[in-house]
Design a protein that fits this description.
With 199 residues, the chain is of the alpha/beta class. 22% of the residues lie in helices and 21% in strands.
Length: 199
Amino acid sequence: MMKKEFLHIEKENKSFPSTEVTKNQIMIGHTSRNLTDYLKSLELRHDGNYKKIPHYIVAENGDVIKLLNPKLVSEFFGDYTIDNNIVCVLLENRGWLTPKKNRKGICDWLGNIYKGEVFDKKWRNKFFWAIYTDKQVESLVSLLKQICEDFNIKRDFIGHNVKVSGVQNFKGVVNRSNYSDCFTDLSPAFNFEKIKELL
């Protein structure tokens, strides 16, 4: 599995707590845009002092990008009772899609034309979803196993995208949509059963 470090956020931004904490959960989400745009947004928001940084991103081609030392605390959720306990992994994925107004085709929520494969299922008032790639899933499984080993996190996975009461206390692997009905990641296009089987 190829690892890249596009940004050295913990070195450039001194506002991340340097204290290492015990992690007992891995939270998976997605970027809701392509990788280049997502990384650029992290650089530009708040004059480079944006602190809602995932620890890792898994690109569509399977590359794993480490943005922040997983021992450090990101402010990804903005709630320290959650952020202190999680290692955050995002998948490069456009998320929900919509037909382009007055034109043929489909676009992402930013209005960018989407040319990839579309997964069709109604969920949380959306109908069309960008797919997650097989290479991503393979790299994600390897990364999850490594993080679980490094932090002694249980290799348990909730395995669905429905809100779960008390999910912040679950020890293992969750996804962002388990925290709230407001989140649409991971979407129905994600193969939850395959992750449960391989993890």
